[in-house]
Specification:
This protein is of the alpha+beta class. The protein has 14 helices and 37 strands. Helix 9 crosses helix 13. The longest helix has 14 residues.
Amino acid sequence: MSISPSPALSRTDEGSVPVEGFRNVAIIAHVDHGKTTLVDALLGQAGAMSAHHKPDESDAADGHATRVMDSMDQERERGITILAKNTAVRWPLSAEHGGGKAGEVKLNIVDTPGHADFGGEVERALTMVDGVLLLVDSSEGPLPQTRFVLRKALELDLPAVVVVNKVDRPDARVSEVVSEVEELFLDLEAEMHHLEFPIVYTNAKAGTASLDPTTQEANLEPLVRTLVDHLPPPSHDPDAPLRAWVTNLDSNPFVGRLALCRVVSGTIKKNQPVAWCKADGTIVSARTGSVFVTENHERVEVDSAGPGELVAVSGIENINLGETIADPDDPRPLPVITVDEPSLSMTIGINTSPMAGKEGSKLTARLVKNRLDTELLGNVSLRVLPTEAPNAWEVQARGELQLAVLIEAMRREGFELTVGKPQVLIKEIDGVRQEPFERLTVDVPEEFSGTVTQLLSERRGRMNEVSHGDSGWVRQEWIVPARGLIGFRTKFLTETRGTGVLNHVFEGYEKWAGKIRSRGTGSIVADRRGPTTMNAIVAIQERSALIVPPGVEVYEGMVVGENSRPDDMDVNICKEKKQTNMRASGSDNTEKVTPPMPMGLDRALEFIATDECVEVTPESIRLRKVELDPNIRARAAKKAKADA
């Protein structure tokens, strides 16, 4: 399912009145095209950070703050936006240029994720705004997530301003990128009024913009004027009662849960009696607590907020996403927010390994289930379902990265978990077995083009388009089964020697593509518990790639390396060197130990086979077999071979 356009947000209703001095804008783009950097520049030029900013190691060389909107630790570490967040910029503009009575315009800006796995955040954010700023890299052009976010914006009939960013790049191809954006609008069957979009050329890092691709002005004034001139202000029916649409949830240590709302009509006040329209259709009485609006990147408490404003409301403790705060005398519920269904699932449960309970503080099934339920409150694209085991749950999401971010967050909170291999969700549509497919774009040097073609063909991919650039690079566009991309990134980077770039986004469900060969190598499995030794590692590393160093505690059934052959191999990695009383010259030779393969959480989820899982603790990432007993594993493998 996708978000249905809300009649409350329509700008063409009879009797609607525009709210001058406001613009609600979402910045949408592919990952790493400069959305957060552009917001930083707007905040800096509006004087939003001069008084309260504390110096940080992420600040730019000239001292101004960078990535202000990336509030999560993982966002700063990964260099991506994970949660959609809003800020506000007040820009001086006269009334004749779109400013309000105060001679300024307030831009409520929603910074959205650029990665396909967090598409649910983008869909939710689009319900808060009246227009979008579509950001495109001047060299890379439109990529898969660009297509996804633009399609969602067009479905909601949101007008767009196109911004070509990073025009200072030496490999910029501005005119070609503009043509590609126009082709993308046509390919998505945009209406005629959507095709008349203005184009602004920016260098977000330098904080400059221009309507001319060959020059840059001193600041972002051309961009702000274009947004105000071409995007409509929020509108409302002056005779309609209070309606505030809950588009996100947050919490505050002083006032509890906060409902982040868009005020569609009427005025919301603090300590006001309201009707709480729940998702199940029931309507109950409630009372608001404090009301906050965003000024710059901080929340400021106010007495009231009018239509078009984005507010945070406390006082309604159990309110959920998509519900409505309405007038108690005339409650009119708004549609409940729904987003595209997840396409990937993974089993998450308590840690059941022999080393459970040594590193974490949150170990029980009750705590894990409560944490997953809490995640559901604000994450509209996640699903949690029970499994046959009472201490494990099936978590469905958009992609591996979304699940990895959730697991990493739980790990940092002190949880110990057992995580299964990601699996795609299969559907039966009209009696036909169907699976999710992804639209994949790869950029590689020409010398690796054939290798990548072979890799994706083996994964049942079909090539849609190929183009050759002037700099010796090739761009290929594929439609590939989602299960073919599980574990593909590591292989892709290895074959292209780290030079290749790949991006993908959900395309849709198609007929089952057939069997796809999974990992072509087996695992090296420890056959006993104990510390790894140098002597054993030197003997094993000749025929395998290990993932553990000497001196690490292992247990029976723990995966310690990758076998060069397809079969698994049980080894004694704890074997010590025999000690004798005899000494002779040259008998003790110096042995070299190959450094182990780094195995972070993201790579571990890609690496594991179907009969393996990942043990996640606050201090360690371990790979293990689902069934630790080697005899039971051998019988199961023999039975599977006989059935095949």
